[in-house]
Amino acid sequence: MPAPRTVLLTGAAGGLGTLMRDLLPDYGYELRLLDLRPIEGAPDAIVADLGDKDAVREAVRGVDAIIHLAGISLEAPFEKILKANIEGTYHLYEAAREEGVGRIVFASSNHAVGYTPRPQGDDPLIPIDTPHRPDTFYGLSKSFGEDLAQFYWDKHGIETVSVRIGSCFAEPTSVRMLSVWMSPADGARLFHATLTAENVGHTVVYGSSANTRLWWDLTTARSLGYDPQDDSEPFAEKLIAEQGELQDGNEAHAYLGGQFVTDPPIWPY
Ligand SMILES: NC(=O)c1ccc[n+]([C@@H]2O[C@H](COP(=O)([O-])OP(=O)(O)OC[C@H]3O[C@@H](n4cnc5c(N)ncnc54)[C@H](O)[C@@H]3O)[C@@H](O)[C@H]2O)c1
Ligand SMILES: O=C(O)[C@H]1O[C@@H](O)[C@H](O)[C@@H](O)[C@@H]1O
Q: Which residue ranges does the record assign to the NAD-dependent epimerase/dehydratase domain (predicted)?
């Protein structure tokens, strides 16, 4: 596959989309933007709902690859998740099949495996082939998305890298995030690797920086050429002083998914 140049970025108005709109052009990509919401300063951005099959098909026409970030990114009633994340992702893959787009990067989430107990002490890192253990309907939709990606590879030869993103924000803001944080610069490095690696078929990777307190195995991500440069450790002392260490016996501290297991943040609309 020749290196992609034109990339459709869905969910471009969101937090991660905004970070990647800034960082990915430096890797030489020309981004076509799509979101439900208009984007200030980007009059050419496509304003469309993933539920609109025709609009999605038109949006993918002519691009070399897709980074699929759009959807509900928190917990919500099943019916809403079904429309935005499950049907929406299906529409995107169908559009890619119809328009001959050969590579998709799917923003999966740690919440697809959120009920996995966090490693402690000398426990091994969580492997990439750990079973799906979604912690929410949201996480369930990410498990579905990974299976959809596998199906479109096996059935239709569309390649996907599913990235189980930890927490990609400017800085980690919780003790849990010290283990799962991905700096925006490492996020861009990882997306670049997922777009340019050869013969990925359907590959699942974790998405985080090279954190000292890492919970999962980045070997597969590294095998695609990802070379993370950041570590959350410089933030550790302050966050632990403010919030304390993760506690045994506290359910919200027991699993990879953290608070999503006990008291998930709810999608606002
Ligand atoms: N930010 C993270 O740390 C993180 C971690 C794990 C996974 N993810 C995944 O990465 C993606 C981006 O995350 P984010 O933090 O930027 O979320 P976000 O909520 O800030 O952005 C999501 C964007 O998708 C758009 N959207 C929602 N429903 C849509 C629809 N039906 N049609 C078109 N657009 C729609 C929203 O308008 C929003 O701009 C999400 O899929 C999320 O699940 C993010
Ligand atoms: O686990 C996390 O920290 C993150 O997981 C992602 O899936 C969610 O979209 C994001 O809102 C969370 O902050």
A: 7-171
Cβ(71)–Cβ(89) under 8 Å?
yes
Catalytic center residues: 138
The string of pLDDT tens digits covering residues 152-192 is 999 999 999 999 999 999 999 999 999 999 999 999 999 99
Nearest bound ligand to the CA of residue 37: 1
Question: What are the tens digits of pLDDT across the range 42-62?
Answer: 999 999 999 999 999 999 999
The identity of residue 157, as a single letter, is G
**Ligand 1 center from residue 116 Cα (angstroms):** 23
- Check pocket membership of 109 for ligand 2, CB cut-off 6 A: yes
Kindly list the distances between the CA atom of residue 261 and the CA atoms of 26, 80, 194, 251, in Å, as whole numbers in the listed order.
37, 19, 29, 8
CB-CB contact of 38 with 49 (8 Å): no
User: Is 262 within 8 Å of 249 (Cβ atoms)?
Assistant: no
Residue 117 has which token pair?
Answer: 């107990």
Report which ligand 2 atom has the smallest distance to the Cα of 265. Answer: 11
φ, ψ dihedrals at 186, nearest 5°:
-70, -35
Can you give the pTM of this predicted structure?
A: 0.98
> Given the CA of residue 257, which atom of ligand 2 is nearest to it?
1
